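[INFO] parsing input record for DUF4407 domain-containing protein
[DEBUG] input buffer:
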Amino acid sequence: MPKRRRDVLLRVANVNPESVITHTDRVLYSAVGVFVLLYFVYATVGGAAFIDASANYQQPWYRWLVGPMIAAGVVAYDRAVVGRVSISYDKLESTDPKEFLRKPTAGLYLGRLGLALLFAVLITEPLMLARYQGEIDNRLNEVHNQQLTKIDTNGVVGTWTTRLNQLKQETVADDAALRDLTNRASQKRRDARLLYQQAVEDSAGDGVSRNTGCPHGGYCDELVRRSRGLDDQAAALDRQAGTLLDTQRTARNARAAEQAELTEQIGDQRHANNKAVKADAGFGARTAAMWHLVTSDFWGVGVFYLGITLLLVALDCAAVGLKFVSRGNAYERNEARIARRSEHEALLLHEREIQDSRTYGEAMAKVVSRGIAAAAEDEQVARESAERAGAVLRHSVVVPDEVRKLTSHRGRHYRPVQGELLAPNTEDDDEPIRNGRHRRSIRTPVIVDEDVRVLPAGGTGRQHRQV
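[DEBUG] output buffer:
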C-alpha cells in the first residue's frame, strides 16, 4: 500500500504518522482505520434504521441525514479512544520505559467497553428488527387481535354491546308475545279447516254417521258450528295481536333508534381501537415481539439473533479492542517520550523563571534596604554633625554683659542700640568714641538659637549674613 494511503488510514484512526516507526504498529493502526471506516458505513445504516423504527417504519427521508450524524458521533468517540495515550508525567527525569505510561484502571476499561456496547446495541437492534420483520409482523398481528378482543370485552364496546343485546332481548320478547297470538290464531284456523273438511265429508256420506246431507242438530251440523267457533276465536286472537302491536310500537321505535345509535358508536369505537392497536407497532412493540420470538423459539430464532448481534457488536468494538490489546507498544512509548520531553523542558524553564524571579526580587530587596540604610545613616550623620557644631559654637562664643543687660532692660536707651550691641575690638579699646559712633571694626557675633548672625554697623539696610 502506498505511504500516502497508509497515512490516510492512520489519520482516520487518529494516530500521529510521525510516531509510527515500526511495521507492526503501522499495520495495527491501519487496520484500526479500516475498521473505523467500515463502522461508519454500518453506523450510518443502523442510525437510519433507528430513525425509521422511531417513525413507525414510515421511511422518512431525513433518516439518511440523521444516520451519518449518529455514525460521526460514534466514530469520533472511537477515534478519541484510539488516539488517546495514557502518559505518565511522574518522574520526568527517568528513562525507564516502564515509567512512560500510566497504569490502566478497571474503571477505564469498563467505561470504554460499556460505552462501546451501548452504541453497538442502539445501532444493532434496529438492524435485527428489520432482519426479522416478517416474524415480528405475525407476532404483532396475534398480539393486536388479543388486545382488540380484550378491549371489546372489558372496554366501553363491551358495555355498549351488553346494552344492545338487552335491547335485542326486549324486542325478541315482544316478538315472541305477538308471535304467540298469531300462532294460536293460525292453529285455530287450521283446526277450523279440518273440522269443516270433516263436515263436508260427513255430508257426502263418507263421515262417521254415513248419512248424506247436513241436517240441523246432526253430526255434520255440529262440526260446522265448531269450525265457525274456531274461526271466531282466530279472528279474536288476530285482533289481540294487532292491539298488542299497537301498544308495542312506541317502545319498538325507541329501541330501534337506540340500537342504531349503539351500533354506530360500536362501529366507530372499534375502528378507533383497531387504528390505535395497529399503531402500536413501533420500536418498543417490535423489540418486545423480537424478545418473545427469541425466548419462545430459541433454537430457531434466538441462536441466529444472538450470533448476528454478537458479530455486529464485535465489529463495533474492533477498533477499541485493538487499542486495548496494543497498550504499551512502540507508538505509545514514542508519543510518551515526546510528551514527557516537552513537559520536562517546560518544567525546567518554569523552574528557571521562578529562580530568576526570586533572584531578581532578592537583589531589588537588597538595593532598597541598602538605600534605606544609607539614607538613614546620612540623616544620622547630618544630625550628629549639626549637634556637634552647635555644641562647639555654644561653648566657644561668649555673650558680653552689656548685651545681656540690654536684653533684660525694657526702657528707652540713651544711646544707639548698635553702639550697645557692638563693642570695639580689643585692638581699638583705647580709641575714643566720636559722635556716639564706634569706628568700623570687626564685631563680635551674637549667637541666638544656634544661628550666628552679624548685625549691620551703621543701619544701612544690609541683609543679615548667616555664618
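[INFO] The chain has two domains: 3-152+297-347, 157-282.
[INFO] shutting down worker
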